[in-house]
Automatic annotation (TrEMBL):
Annotated GO MF terms: ATP binding; ATP hydrolysis activity
Keyword Transport on entry: yes
Protein name: Iron complex transport system ATP-binding protein
Organism taxonomic ancestry: Bacteria, Pseudomonadati, Pseudomonadota, Alphaproteobacteria, Hyphomicrobiales
PROSITE patterns: ABC_TRANSPORTER_1 (PS00211), ABC_TRANSPORTER_2 (PS50893)
Length: 271
C-alpha cells in the first residue's frame, strides 16, 4: 500500500533539482508537500507520477518499480493533476470529467454505468454539476480547477497527486476541496497535495513533508514538522498558533521572521 522514493536524485538540464530523497507514502493518509518557491515540489510530484525519471534511485509502487508498470495500469492506479494542465480544445465540463474514466475503458467498449456513476459522483463532490454543459474556456480559474479536480477524482485511482489544488479557489471552495481530499484519503486513497497555504495544510493534512533546495528537511504530523525554527529557517516567517473554537489547533503564518526580515528599503537584515 505504498508509493516510495528511494535515494532519488533528479537532474534537469544539467541542474540537480532533487537530491537524497527517501520518502515512503502510505495510502489512507493526506500528505501535504510544502516548501518555498523553487524547492522542487512539483518535480517531486512528477517523479511520483512517473513523468520525470530520476537520474539516480528508485521509485516503487507496492514494492515494484513504477517504470515496470504498463502506462495504462499506472494511469488507473495513479491520478495526477498538475498546474497549467491543458484541455487543448473547448470541451464541456462533463466531457472533461469523463476523460478521467479513459484508463478504465477497454478497447471497442463504450462507457459503462460504473463510469457514469464515477463521473456524476466526482462532479457532485467538486461542486461542478451545475457547470456540466459549460465549455471550458468560459470557466473562471476556480471553476476550471474544480472541473480538473473532478476529472482526477473520476479516475478513482489508489493514488491522487495534486499540484496546488486550492490556489485559485475562494475560501469556501478551498475548505471544500481540502475536506474532499481528506475524505478521499479516509476512503483509502493515498493523497499527496502540493500546497502553499500552510494554515490549510496544517489543518487538514495528516502528514507534512517539507522540501527546501531540493532536499527533504522535515516530515511528520503538522505540529511536529512545522516548528517555529523550521518556519523561520525554510520559509522566513513567524507563525501565530492557537486553538479554534472547535478545539482544532491552527498555525497561521504571520510575519517575516527576523532572519530574513525586509526593511522599508527592501534590504535583508541577517538574523
Ligand atoms: N525542465 C527544467 N529544466 C531546468 N530546471 C527546471 C526544470 N523544471 C523545473 N526546474 C527548476 O527546478 C526547480 C524546482 O522547480 P519546481 O517546479 O519543482 O519547484 P516548486 O517547489 O514546485 O516551485 P513553486 O512553488 O514555485 O511552484 C526550480 O528552480 C525550477 O526552475
Amino acid at each position: 500500500m505504498s508509493l516510495g522514493l528511494h535515494d532519488v536524485r533528479v537532474t534537469l538540464d544539467g541542474r540537480t533539482i532533487l537530491s537524497d530523497i527517501d520518502l515512503v507514502l502510505e495510502r489512507g493518509r493526506f500528505v501535504g508537500l510544502v516548501g518555498p518557491n523553487g524547492a522542487g515540489k512539483t518535480t517531486l510530484l512528477r517523479v511520483l507520477a512517473a513523468l520525470v525519471t530520476p537520474a539516480r534511485g528508485r521509485v516503487t509502487l507496492e514494492g515494484r518499480a513504477l517504470s515496470d508498470l504498463h502506462r495504462d495500469e499506472r494511469a488507473r492506479r495513479i491520478a495526477a493533476l498538475f498546474q497549467g494542465a491543458g484541455i487543448g480544445w473547448p470541451m464541456r465540463v462533463r466531457e472533461i470529467v469523463t476523460l478521467g474514466r479513459l484508463p478504465h475503458r477497454r478497447a471497442f467498449t463504450g462507457f459503462s454505468d460504473a463510469d457514469a456513476v464515477a463521473v456524476a459522483r466526482a462532479m457532485e463532490r467538486t461542486d461542478v454539476a451545475h457547470l456540466a454543459d459549460r465549455s471550458e474556456p468560459t470557466l473562471s480559474s476556480g471553476e476550471r480547477m474544480r472541473a480538473l479536480l473532478a476529472r482526477a477524482l473520476a479516475v478513482e485511482a489508489e493514488w491522487l497527486l495534486v499540484d496546488e489544488p486550492v490556489t485559485a479557489l475562494d475560501p469556501a471552495h478551498q475548505l471544500d476541496a481540502m475536506s474532499l481530499l481528506r475524505a478521499a484519503s479516509r476512503d483509502g486513497t493515498g493523497v499527496v497535495a502540493v500546497l502553499h497555504d500552510l494554515a490549510l495544510a496544517a489543518r487538514f493534512c495528516d502528514r507534512i513533508v517539507v522540501l527546501s533546495g531540493g532536499r527533504l528537511v522535515a516530515d511528520g504530523p503538522p505540529e511536529e514538522a512545522l516548528t517555529d525554527s523550521l518556519l523561520a529557517r525554510v520559509f522566513g516567517v513567524t507563525a501565530e498558533r492557537g486553538r479554534a473554537a472547535d478545539g482544532t489547533r491552527y498555525i497561521l503564518p504571520w510575519a517575516r521572521s527576523r532572519a530574513t526580515e525586509e526593511t522599508n528599503d527592501g534590504v535583508i537584515i541577517p538574523g
